[in-house]
Amino acid sequence: MRRPLPSSLMLHLALALCALVVIAPIVWTVGAAFRTQISLLMGHMTFTPIWNNFNEVLWSKTSDFLLNYRNSIIVGVASTGLCVVVATLAAFSLNRLNWPGWVVHIFLAWTMIFHMIPPVALASAWFAMARTVGLENTFTGLILAHATLNLPIAIWLMAVFIREVPKELEEAAIMDGASTPRVLWHVVLPLITPGLAATSILTFISSWNEFAVALTMTMKQTATVPVAIAKFAQDYEIQYTQMAASAALAMLPALIVLLIAQRYIVSGLTQGAVK
Amino acid sequence: MTTSQASARAATPPGSARSAAGHDASGCDASGYDASGRGDQRLWRWIAFAPALAMMVALSVLPIANLVVTSFQNITWADGQATRSWVGLTHYRALFSDNLFAAGLSNTVIFALAAVAGQMVLAFAMALMVSKIGRGRVLYRAIFILPLLIPGIVIGAIWKLMLNFDFGLVNKALGLFGVMPHDWLGSPETALLSVIVVDIWHWTPFCFLLFLAGLESLPQDVFEAAKMDGAGPWQELAYVTLPLMVPTIIVTFAFRLIVAFKVFDEVYLLTGGGPGTSTEVLSFTLYQRFFTEDKAGYGSAMSVAIIFLVSILLVVAISARRGTGRQP
Asked: What are the structural domains of chain B?
């Protein structure tokens, strides 16, 4: 049964094949965004790149995509800010401020159950609640919904990072007479900035990508990018190349984040996922 | 906290790998620092915890309570006014004779098991390979993460193009090998399979990341000892690496299975549940009944049923984790 270890060359070949399978669909789709519908339908392998699809998607009078993009940024930034602040405070409180064990356990168990519920099941209840208090079709409603959806993971993540702060530092600050808020602000926060960055990035991406709740809680004026892209697919005659162009635009934040903050994403995904 | 043990196992950086062996090392430190009677802590712990508590109560406990109440009611709308009438268990009984719900349930189970199994195997192989190479690790990792960051809807759009009968790259590529073009999403036999493959493409990177983190945190001396004893690479994999990775594998499997049950975006865009009911999944059934058909009472009952099913899954997952946690 003994076989030699695959050589380094074989490993690289196999990995390169995996990388190709990951990248090819993305590159091909971005390529489709630069083609005419006819060129795509005819299946020519070569084509002259055109900007027409992006022009149509971004600047045409019938397209709301710029508005959708703005909406996604507003909802993403606001829900991330809210979520990360609330989660950091909660994680600090639960881990460092002597709560009885059962409080911590029940609360975290509830966040875990909540995290497992399909968003569609919650969307219906949120929609009904938003209608009752007059928040349907507003940013506030969607921002609150996204912040809540991401709260469990944000709390678990921040708890991991806060637990890594040496308790001795906090105790020393307390001995020096620092109040609890000062301990959090001057001792803990400076040490968990990488964790804050990771959590913020993941929360923003998660809000940017979220579809089910955005679909049910928004109308034309407040629709986010995923909702807009889903519309393309439902048209009777699908504008494939424009769909590709808007898909390419929707991937931009992911690419930027990957280029400048891969480290944070990796730490966030590996720490947060399994908690 | 049951949760933090997993982190110690799955994501400890190489330097602190030792703590991964003692499962309880980082487990229970929720006690806080020893505040010898500091008065302001009682106040501040409430102030810091209140926003999260308020959000969870207002936006998770209340909505779910609302769903439970509504699931026993019929709601009719007239002039913007809702009229509610109690119907007892009618909706829950109706669930059992709802063909769409039955299709959604069985498709979701098939989908989740097949997709997650595929992801685990592929991801393990990829993580093992990446952990064995010297240079290029960061580059491969960056590439493999990419699908995780893309919106599910965009992944749906990408694969709607890729799998298109007329011009999709998949049929083109298969054509090079002499395979006849096939309508992947339009035929009942291959629609669910296609959605599963798309999900594998989407989520294998996630398992890959966790496995890679797990592999990198394994204690190196065990491997050296195995080598000293003359173990070959395949023996090392079977008798050293795999057994050590069991906790990570189980945690990853449970987590992925739970998320797979929530699948909605890709199905919404790729197939809309069709053709027929071949790709009908639970979230999508719920969406149709609740929003498209506007059956709030029945939809709520279905939501409650789904939440109940998911809770069972959680209990199973937690007891599975407990079971492995005790192993040496």
From this structure: 91-325 (1.10.3720.10)
